[in-house]
Write a structure and sequence with these properties.
247 residues, alpha/beta, Rossmann fold, 7-stranded parallel beta sheet, two-stranded parallel sheet, 47% helix, Sc_DH/Rdtase_CS, 3-oxoacyl-ACP synthase, oxidoreductase
């Protein structure tokens, strides 16, 4: 069977670790050429070296808050691999605190990386893709953007905003052949989530009908679905990868 992304080029922001790295690995396995963008340029280069040779994957430093940095990712994809077919807006940070204790800087930083960063990726990738009359953009939201989480007024607002942005961009780009969809992961097993206090972990687990945390590969496979022709008649949609939590 032909690989789902054979002959295509993808960019993944925040691709040096966690869900982003899993997405990059999955895309490569399905035949794509991949540009891994990450704020930590050394980590991006190391991830690329781990994933394969320079003929299939390259790591590029990128601060998604900077439109110039994001454009550099797209230029790298086009220059090195001949085009851009898939763009995954995955880069993100957390600065959790209650509203009473959250600083303005903590709020601004999370909004900038998630919301402005996703806007840069979506607008710049779609500008390239519309010329080719095809392309898929995948935006990483979160279950926090659906239900709101204590201590995450910044993160929940940003992740909810990504859903609205995804739908607005999907409407703008549909007639240009560019699809824009979003994924809302729930509790996904990673170094970050496994570091949370046991009481918090147990509380979250009690809310999941499937009674387990998700794996990063289970988010990556949904990103692959949205990136490929399997979802060719889908745009402006939101996939919840949550084990049924808060359905």
């Amino acid at each position: 069977m032909r690989p789902l992304l054979e002959g295509r080029t993808a960019v993944v922001t925040g691709g040096a670790q966690g869900i982003g790295l899993a997405i990059a690995r999955t895309f490569l396995a399905e035949g794509a050429k991949v540009v891994v963008g990450d704020l930590d340029g050394q980590a991006a280069a190391a991830a690329a070296a781990e994933l394969g040779g320079e003929d299939t994957v390259v790591g590029v430093p990128c601060d998604v808050v900077s439109g110039e940095d994001v454009q550099r990712l797209i230029d790298e994809a086009a220059g090195r691999f001949g085009g851009l077919d898939v763009f995954v807006n995955n880069a993100g940070i957390t600065r959790d605190a209650t509203m009473r204790t959250m600083t303005e800087d903590q709020f601004d930083a999370v909004i900038a990386v998630h919301l402005k960063g996703t806007w840069h990726g979506t607008r710049l990738a779609s500008a390239h893709m519309r010329e080719r009359k095809s392309g898929a953009i995948v935006n990483l939201s979160s279950l926090s953007g659906k239900v709101g989480m204590v201590g995450q007024t910044n993160y929940s607002a940003a992740k909810a905003g990504i859903v609205g942005m995804t739908k607005a961009a999907a409407k703008e780009m549909a007639h240009h052949g560019v699809r824009v969809n979003a994924i809302q992961p729930g509790l996904i097993r990673s170094a970050m989530t496994e570091a949370m206090p046991q009481k918090a972990w147990d509380q979250k687990m009690s809310e999941i009908p499937m009674q387990r945390a998700g794996e990063i590969e289970e988010v990556a496979s949904v990103a692959l679905f949205y990136a490929s022709d399997l979802s060719s008649y889908m745009t402006g949609t939101v996939a919840e990868v949550t084990g049924g939590r808060f359905m």
